[in-house]
Structures
1.
Amino acid sequence: MNVPIRRLTFFCMVLFGALLLNANYLQGLQAEDLREHRHNQRQTARQFDAARGAIIVGNEQIAYSEPTEDEDAAYAYQRHYDNSEEYAHITGFYSLYNATGIEGEQNSMLNGSDSRLAVSNFMDTLTGEESQGASVELTLNPEAQETAFDALRSTGKNGAAVALDPNTGAVLASASVPSYDANPLADHDPSKVEETYQELEEAEDKPLLNRAFNQRYPPGSTFKVVTAAAALEDGETPDSTQPAPETYQLPAGGTMPNHGGINGPCNGGDPDPLRHSIEISCNTSMAHWAVDLGEEKMAAQAEAFGFDSGEFDIPLTVSESSYPRGLNGSQLAQTGIGQFDVSATPLQMAMIAGGIANGGDVMRPYLVEKVESSDFTQLESANPEVFSEAVSSSTADGLTEMMVQVTEGDEASGTQGAIPGMQVAGKTGTAETGQGSTHNWFISFAPANDPQVAVAVVLENGNSSGGELAAPVAKPIMEAVIEQ
Amino acid sequence: MNAPNTGSATLPPVKRRNAEFVMLLLALAIALGSFAASGLALNESIPPGLFGYGLTFGGLALATHVTLRFIAPYADPLILPCAIFLNGLGLSMVWRLNQGDEGDHAGVGTQLIWAAIGMVLCLAILFFIKEPRVLQRYPYITLLVAVVLLASPMTPVLGQEILGARRWIALGPFQLQPSEFAKIALVIFLSGYLVMKRDVLSLASKDLKVGRFKVLDLPRMRDMAPMVVAWCLAILILVVTKDLGTSLLMFGTFLAMIYVATQRSSWVIIGLTMFMAGATVAWAIFTHVQQRVTIWLNPFDDEIYNSVGGSYQLVQGLFALAEGGVLGTGLGQGQPDTIFAADSDFIMVSFGEELGLTGIMAIVVVIFLLCERGLRVAMASREMFVKMMAAGISFVIAFQVFITMGGVTRVIPLTGMTTPFLSAGGSSLMASWIMLGLLLRMSDNARRPAPQAIQDEGTTQVISR
C-alpha cells in the first residue's frame, strides 16, 4: 500500500507546488501590474495621502492638492478643481475609485511614480522632504477656453467647441456642454463620490461625455470642404463646375433638394462653379462632385484628413471619425454633403480647418505643453509633428480662398463668423440627424493669410443653421486667441 | 538506531521529544511575537491580552507536549510544533483583523477558546483512543454520522444559509459547520470500508482493449456501487447546499483513498470523468456555479467586477497580495481588514499582504510539512486501516488548503471554505485539532518499537507491550 501513498504524497507536493508558483507569480511577477490596476483603490487611497502635482493652464493651477486642515480628515490631501465646469472634460477627476482625463492619463507624472522622477524622489528622501508629483502644463489658452465654454452655454444647447493652433496642433480650447463639477468627485467620502458619480452617469444629457473628442456627429455641409479638397486634388479648379439643379435625382433612387437660403437651383439652372457652391453651400452640385469623384477618391481624401484612422491619444482618447464604404450612387451623393453615415468628432473637423490653414498639413493635436518636476526640471515637452499631409499647398490655397467667401462673399452663408479687420475662412454646416432635427456646425480659421487659430463648433439639435447658431460661437473664440 | 528508511520499513523508534520541545518553543515564540508585533503596529503598544493569551495558548501547547511524553512518547515530533505554529499565527491574524471592531478582544477571545477546546479534544483522543483500530469497528455507523452531519444544514430549524451557502447549523448561541466534522467521519468510514472491500475493488477486473492492447483494466460494473454513491453524494452536496468546496473536498478525498486502497488508476480516471461530467452539468444548470467560473476566468472584467456577488472580493484579495509583494507590509501595517471574510476564507490573502510572499511560502511549506509527516505515518504504519486513515486525514488537510488558497489566489474557482488551523471559526479549528490528535496517536503506534520477544523464558514466548 506504500506505493500509492508515495504517489499521493507526490500529488500533494504538486498541489502545494502549484500554490507556491502561483503565489510567486502574483506577488512577484504580476504585483506591479496589480498595484497599478485601475480598480485598485489601495493605490488611489495611498495617493490621497501624498502631494499630487498640479495641472496648469496659463499660469494658473486649475487642479491642485492642498493639505487637509481637519485632523480627522480621512487623507492628508484634498484635490481641488478651479473653474471646474470649464475644464472638467480635460482635467477629468481623481476620485477614490478611478481617475479620468489628464488626471488618469498623466497619473504616473502627477503622483510621482514615473521612473523619470526617481532621482528627484530619491533626493527628497535624502533631504527628508516630502516627495511631490510633477506638474502638468496644458496647451489650453484660458481666455479662449472661457470664451468657448461661455459662448456654448449661452446658446442654451448641448454641444462642443474645439480650437487648435493650426501650425503646431496644440489644443487651445476644448469645451463640451453640459459639463460637471469635478470637486465632489474628489471628495474623501466614498458614498458621496459614488452618489455624485451615479447621478452624473445617469443624467440624460450625459454631462460626463466629452463631446469635443468622443461624440461623433454627421458633419453636414462642413464636409463639403473635404469634397472640394478631393476635387481640387483631382486636378479641378475652383472654377470647375457641376450641375446644380433645384433637386438632384439621385443615381440609385431618391431625391436631394437644396436647403437653407437656397430656394431653387444654385446658379440659375446653369452648372455651378465650385467656389460658388462652397460660398452658398449648394447641396446638389456638391453631391454631383462626390458622384463624379467616386467612393475611392472621397474616402481617400477623408482618410487623409484623419477619418478612419482609429482612435488616437492626445493623450486623452479621441474617437474615430468615419467615412462609410460600399456605397450605392445615392449614398455616395449624400456623403458629398456630409450626410448618410459620415460621422466626425468636433476635434476631427477642427483638424480639417487646421490642415487647410497650415498649407495642407494636418498637425497632430496635443494637450500637454510640458511636464515639470517640483524642482522645475523639465521632464517632457510638446514636440509638434505632422499628423498627415492632407492636401497640397495649392489645394489648401484654393480651399482657403473659397472658405473666405463663406464669411464675406456676396451670397455668404456664414457672415456671422466674420471678424472686422481680417479675413476669416469658414464653412457652415446644418446636418440632418435623421430624427427631424439638425445639428449646427461651423468650422473656420483666421486670419486667413496667417492662420493662428482653427475652430470647430457644433450644437446638438440646434434646429437653426450653422451660420446662424454656430458661427457666432466660433467668432469670439478666434478673437480671444488672436487678440493676445 | 539509524536504520535506513526503506519505505515499507518502520520508522526508527526514536522519541525526539526534546527536539519537539525546542521546536515548540520556537513556534510559540513566533506566535506570541506576531501577536505583539501586530499590537505594536496597530496601537503602538504590546496588546494587553498578551500575557493571558500566552499563558493559555502556551500552557495548552506545553501541556500537550508533556502529555505526549507520557502517553504517546513515540509520536512524530514535528507534527505538534507545525500545528502550534499555524494556529498561533492564525490567532494573531484573527486578533489583528478584528481590531477595528468593538473591543480589544473581539474575535480573538472566542477564537482562543476554540483553540483551547480543540487542544483539549486532541488530548482526549490521545488519552482515550489507545488503539486507532477501535474506530474500524462500526464503519456504517460512522457513515451514518457523516451523512447526518452533512445533511443537518438542510433541516429547516437547525440549518442556516449564510451568503448563498447552506453550511451552518445553529446550536443555541453557536453556529456549527458540520461538514468540517463530517469529513473526519468520512475518512474513518472509508478507511474501514475500503480495507474490507479492498480485494474485490482492486483485483476483480475487466480489461479494456483496443485491438490486442490493453489500455485500462476496468473494475466490474457491479463493483461500481461505492463510486456511484460517493459521486451522488458529492453532486447532492453541490446542488443542495451550493457548497462547491465541500463537494470537491469530499469527492477528492474519496478518490485519493480508493486509490491508496486499490492502487488502481482506473478508479481515479473513472471518478474524475464522472465528477467532470457532473460538474459540467451543474455548470450548465446552476447559475451560482456559472458565476463562480465566470469570476474565476474574468475577474477584471468591468461588468463582472461591478455586479453584485461578482469578482470584487476576489480582485480585492489579489490587490492585497500584490500590495504585500515579496516582503509584505508587516503585521498590522497593511489593510487586509478591508476585504470581506479576511479572517476566514481569505486568511491566506491577509497573510500574503502583511507577511508577503516570504511569509505565505513559509506557511504553505509548514502545512505541507505537516501533511507530509502524516503521510509518512501512513507509510510506516503496519495496519491497513491505520495506513488508510493517516493517508486520508493528511490528504484532507492538504486538499482543503489547496482548495481554499487556490481559490483566493485564482488557481481554481473560489469556493467558500476555511483554511485548517489558520481561519477564524470554531468548527474548523476543533476539527483540525481532532485530526491532529488522530495523527499523533497513529504516529505513536507506527513508530513504537515492535514488541520484543523475551528469549530467556524457555520455549514459551510471551508477548509483552
2.
Amino acid sequence: MALPALIMFIGFGVIPLLGVLALSFSSWDGIGAIHPAGLQSWRSVLNPGLLHALKVTFLITALSWLFQTPMSILLGTFLAGRQRYRGFLAVLYFIPLLLSSAALAITYKALLDPNFGLGAGLGIPLLSQDWLGRGNLAIGVVVFVVSWQFIPFHSLIYQAGVRQIPVSLYEAAQIDGAGRIRQFFSVTLPQLKYTILTSSTLIVVGSLTFFDIIFVLTAGGPADATRTLALDMYITGFQGNLMGQASAIAMILVLLGLVLALLLQRLGGRDRSASQLEGM
Amino acid sequence: MSVDPTTTTRRTFLKFAVGVPLTGAALAACGSSGPTQAGAGGGGGNAGSAGSGTATYWFLSGPPGEAIRTASVNRFNAANPNTKIKATTFQNDAYKTKIKTAIGAGQAPTIIWGWGGGGLKSYVAANQVEDLTSWFAQNPDVKNRLFPASFGAATVDGKIYAMPAETVQPIVLYYNKKVFDKVGVQPPKTYADILDLVPKFNAQNIAPFSLGGQSRWTNMMWLEFFLMRLGGSDLFNRVMTEKGAWADPDSIKGLTMTQDLVKANGFVKGFSSITADSNADQALLYTGKAAMMLHGSWSYGIQVANGGQFVPSGGLGWMNFPPIDGGKGEPGDTVGNPGQYLSISSKATEGEKTTAKNFFKTQVLSDAENKQWIDTGQVPIVKGTQAQLNASKDKDFLNFVYGIASNAKFFGQSWDQAASPTAAESLLDNIAKLFQLSISPQQFADNMSKVVGQ
C-alpha cells in the first residue's frame, strides 16, 4: 500500500535532495558546465545576508504562528457547533483557501497600492499607508495575507479536533458548574493538544518555505525586508545564477525544517501518558 | 484509542519537512510562470519536432511589442507553411528567469529573445548559442541595413552571436505638461532645476517623480544618468568593470544625490512597492499623480495605448536627462537598450536553425514590421527610416529618439544587461537598499567592490 507513496517520495523527495546536496559543493551558473568547488559555496553563503534572511524567516514564522493559532482555535471551536448558520459561515470562511496564492497576492497588492488602492480610492488616510514600501509594515502585510489564506485550513483542523472531544467531558464539566469559558479552557484546549501540535508543525514548517505570496507581494522588498530564506534561495539561484550557493541555502532550509519538526514532535511526545482519550 | 499518534505522525511530518523545500526548489526549476501558450514549454531544442524545421520562439508579452512580434511570426508562417515558427510569450521579469532556466536545462527555444550583453555572454560561455558571424558575412545586406552601434551588445570576443532586432531604446525623462502648467513651472534645464521643482510639486500633493521601484532596474536608470553626467562615459563603464570604481568621488557623489532625492520625497509615495511590469508607474504620470518620470523610450507607446487622450492631446513632454552642474559628462550621451537581440540555440536541429535564419532574413525588421514599430512610437534599428518617421503622427517623439540615438557620442548599454547575471543581481540588490536608505553610499561602494572586477 505504501509503495506508490514511497516511490513518489524517493523520486521527488530523496533523489532531488541528494542532487541539491551535490550541487551545494559545486559551482554552476545554471547554464554551463558544473564544476566541483568543495566548500566554496558554503563559505560564501555564510554571510550577513543569510543571517538577515534567517531572521526574517523566523520572524514571519513566529508572527504567523502567533496570529494564526489563536484565530484558528477560536474559529474552529465556533464552527464545531452543529447550528445551521455556523455551517453556512464555515463555507464562507473556507473560500480564501480555494484561491490561488498568486491571484490572492496580486489582489492584495492592488488593494494596498498607496496611489491606486483601497485607501486612496476611498480617501481613508489610515488605509493609504505605504503598506508594502516600509520594512516593518511589509512584514505585517505578508503575515496578514498568509494568515488570511491559511486560517481557514487550520480552523478546519481544529473543527475536526473539537468534534472528536467526547460530549461526556462537557457534561461532566457542566455538572461541576463550569461555564462556557471555563469549559473552553479546561476541556476544549487540553483536549486539542495534539491538534495544536499538528497545526503548529504545519504552520512552522510551511512558513519556513513560504514563497509564492511573498514573491508576488514584495519580491523580498522593500530592499531585503521580507527576503526570507526560500526567497533568498530563489533569487541567488535563478536571478543571480549562483546555483551552488542556492543549493547550500536549500540544504540549510531542509535541515531547519527537519530540526523544527522534530522539536515540535518532542514537545508533544514527552508525556504520552497524558493522552486524554485513554480510558474513555 | 490504539493508534499512537506520535509514531504515525512523525513520518508524515518528516515527509512534509523534507518534501516541502524540495518541492519549492523543483517548482522553481520549472519556472515561476508557465508559458502563456499551452504545449510550447517542451517544444524547444531538440524535443518533439526534431527535423521538421518548425522552430520555437519565446519573447516578451505586453503592449506594444507583443502584437508586432506576433504579426511578424504570422507573416512568416503564412509565407512558409511547412517550416513554421511557434511563439510563446512571457512577462518581462518572469522571462528573465525562465529563459536562463530553460537554456540551462537544454529546453531552450530555437530563437532566444534577449538584451544581448552580459546575458548573451553567459550563453556563449556555455556554448548554448549559435555563432552567426559567418552567416552575417554571407548575408551582408542583412547586416548593413542595421545601425552599426546595435552590434556591440551582440558581439562577444569579436564574434556575433545574435541578430540585432526591434528598436533603439534610450532612457528618456518624461514629464506631464498639464501638471507643469497647473503648478505654473517650467521644464527643468539642469539638475538644479529638478531639485527646485521637487518641493513645488510636493506642496501641491503631486509626486515629483513616478518610479516603479520594486522592479529595481527602474531605480538603476537614475544612478546610470547621475554617474554618466557627473563622471562621463568613462566612469559609466568603469563602475561595472573596475574594482573600486564605485568609491570614486564622482560615484559617491552620484550615490549621495540619489539618496538626497529620496530624502527630499522626490519619488512617489510607495515607490518601492510599485512594479514596472504592471505599468502602474506610467499610469501615475498620465493620470497626473506624478509630474515626471525617467523611463525607457518604449514607455511612450504604452502611454499612447493606455493613457487615453493624454498623449494625443499634447500632455506628454520629454527630454534627455539634463546636465548636472560641474559634471564631466557630455549632455548628449545616453543609456538604454541599443537594440533587442535574437539568438539561435545551438541545441536546435539543422532544420530549426535554417527556419530561424530564414526568419531573421525575411521577417525581422521587414518594412511591414518597421511600420508597426514606428506606429507605436518606437525607432527601429534600421538605417534610412527618417521619411517614415516624419510621416508618423508621433514624428516629434520619433525624431527626438532618432536624434539621440544618432547624435549621442556614447550610448551606454544598461548595466544590468551589460554585466553578468551574478553581478547584475548584486547591483540591483544594492540599488534597492540604497533607495531604501538602508545602506550608505560608502557601504554601497564597499559591497560592489566585492562583486565588480572579480
